[in-house]
Amino acid sequence: MRNSNEIIDDIANKEYEYGFTTDIEMDIAPAGLDEDVIRFISAKKEEPEWLLEWRLKGYQAFKKMQLPKWQHFDMPEMDFQKVSYYAAPKKKKQLNSLDEVDPELLATFEKLGIPLNEQKALSGVAVDAVFDSVSVATTFKGKLKEMGVIFCSFGEAVREHPDLVKKYLGSVVPHSDNIFAALNAAVFSDGSFVYIPKGVRCPMELSTYFRINAQNTGQFERTLIIADDSSYVSYLEGCTAPMRDENQLHAAVVELVALDHAEIKYSTVQNWYPGDKDGKGGIYNFVTKRGICKGNSSKISWTQVETGSAITWKYPSVILQGDDAMGEFYSVAVTRNKQIADTGTKIYHLGRNTRSRIISKGISAGQGENTYRGLVQVGPRAHNARNFTQCDSLLIGNRCGAHTFPYIESRNKSATVEHEATTSKIGEDQIFYLNQRGIDTEKAVALIVNGYAKEVLNQLPMEFAVEAQKLLSITLEGSVG
Amino acid sequence: MTSDITTPFYQYILDGGNGLTPKEDVLYGVRQDALARFRTLGLPDLKTEAWRYTNIQRVLKEQPFVLQQQALPVTAAQLAPAFIPELSCYRAVLVNGHLQPELSELPAAKDITITKLSEATQQKGFKTFFDKHPHLADQPFAALNTALFADGLFIELKANAVLDKPLHIIHVYTLTQHAFLQPRHLWIAHPHASATVIESTLGLHNDAVAFVNSVNEVVLEENAELWHYNIQNAVQNSRHINQTAARQETYSRYHHYNFALPQATMIRNNTSVALTGSYTETDLHGLYLANGNQHVDNHTFVDHLVPHCNSNELYKGVLLDTANSVFTGRIHVHQDAQKTNAFQQNNNLLLSEKATINSQPQLEIYADDVKCSHGFTVGQFSDESLFYLRTRGIGAEAAKHLLVNAFAFDITDQVHIPALQHYLTEEIRTVISN
After folding, report:
1. Which of A334, B83, B308, B422 is the most buried (most CB within 10 A)?
2. Which value does ipTM take for this structure?
């Protein structure tokens, strides 16, 4: 058996498995950002006037803002003028079926293990594939349409359902929320739009695969999910990206709105290019995700498995506005090499009897830095609010870091808030036990890590759970503390 | 620094600070550096991360403050209420930060020095300890204190010295006008020395506002042990910013207890411990009991720099009326500090609709073979507990007192001097009964 140092070296040097690029002709906006670029994007997408206005408001807000300084890592230098803000696969005639999709594009998805074809039908997943910025193919539309579910690209939603978009766009993440959200508001390319009508339980897991492809192009997705009264939807998001030398900024915005008795479950598996072993390249994943439980007894649940990106910096949040609403956040974040994760959640308890649960599992290996940062705020109206937070850190190797920075603000005496955090390493006794049962060290670590993260992985829908487990094993196989 | 209140105050301090120290003073250089540091750091506002929950402007309203205040006469009768009943102890009485030997009762032992800090500055080796704590550097109010302090208490325990009775330090504040005071203390315990020190406050300043910005540097050398009790029982019209910075060498033990009681308008404690030697023990225990419109802010920082150190932190708070409390506990485990055990716990009891609590228990860990945890809770009495006590024939009020006492017991039980323990339990009872 190899000794642990060799194994750790192996992992440190492991190349990114999903790195490749696809050659497709692009429509690319020149690098730089000004009002003209925004007008160009808006015109390209044939958007109505009100949306352009909104984009410009976002741009005005963006201009006034500065990069924050409170994060627990050194902010890479960011020149917003060097990024190109629009890239779309060259427009071809209207696609009627998958056969018309660029075969090279289909091959890319094939390589990623995402069969965008009949196989998906058997697995019961409708896929809205976002290739860089414009939706290429949407499946299962028919079936969803029958039930009144709207699941389409953002651009299409603007054309077909302007009232809904107008009503909810920016209602959870305003155009001036933070610098990246403002940037997104100004230049967002495309994204997904979901509307679940009253009383409908969405019959399948909705999933979108994001993939960053064009060099030097930030991805500015915008996702808006609205679950009307008593509806239910489970939405999956998964990402892999090709190997690149230059850093790519990903500043997406996700907005969730849950009305009375509605439930939204949002799951993410993120495995973007993390950079090489010196931390060169890699994606900057600066995403603003926020949901609002607007109605009574509504529920929003975030589940994320973060293994990729050079820097993951996001706080999927829930505003518990309605009475008896519930928010959940389950997270596994793995960092290795020089990866950084500064992630967590914000839960705002505003309504009565609101409940929230936060389970965060951080795993740091190599020189990875993992930070949990979270806010639990209980407002004066939130009688009997209840929160439970648990964040655990696992350290593998002695060059990594694990940090916990929770913020707890309670303004109601009947509220009960609990927070606990622990830090540990994989016990030698655990490894030894598994070794003497004939399980080699690599597998033992995978087993322990998967066991450690089980509470979170259990929350993922079936297909994702398998993928996430595989991902964890691949990312960390063999590392011994 | 653009607000109406802070700008003139900031300027006023800088102007005042420039003229205070004569050039020939041994500390002239240190003070000038500190003033420059304060100038760079500036007065904190709500955007300063360490001060995001404590609005310093709120307590700067009573300007102008005088920056120096000599001791005013205090009679023995005035002093008596500050004594802890049945506690056999030495006594050091400081009036406005100046030691008053005639009111004090100091130990005669030759290997123990308790004197005015201003007298100790000439001593050989003073500068090797003074203003050397790594955590003071980035604290604006500590820099301000270094620049402006007038006097304070210097304690030095020579090697193997053992203080046979606790030392009770009574900080008396008596003022005729609003004052911004900067007491400065330095306590050094050389190898194998041990002592118990109790601090408490006696406020005689009525309408005049005492804004006390104190810094206390504690050095524990090899195998030294210090029990340090700080009872913050200042009167109304007091604002206290208290920086206690301890440094521990190998095998040393530091037990710090902080009791923040009514009625000071604002209390801010920056308690930090730097562990520079291995195999140390650190206890940071705190109880804050706030009522009225009090604002109590505890910032603690345990800095594990070397391997094999244990730290244990427990802060408990009971909030009444419109009181407001902040707890920020930070544990930093450096890469070299393997085999660290660091625990932290913060529990809060909110007894009023209008009370608020903000808490930030923080772990920052760079070593893998460590055991670290933190916990936080906030809640109120469980109805079941109250109901149970009432079924046993205990009245609602009495049951509440019982439960608050039980909640505080975890801290008071740790107090290792029976007389002091009794005194504190009584103090807590009085606050709750009112």
Report:
1. A334
2. 0.84
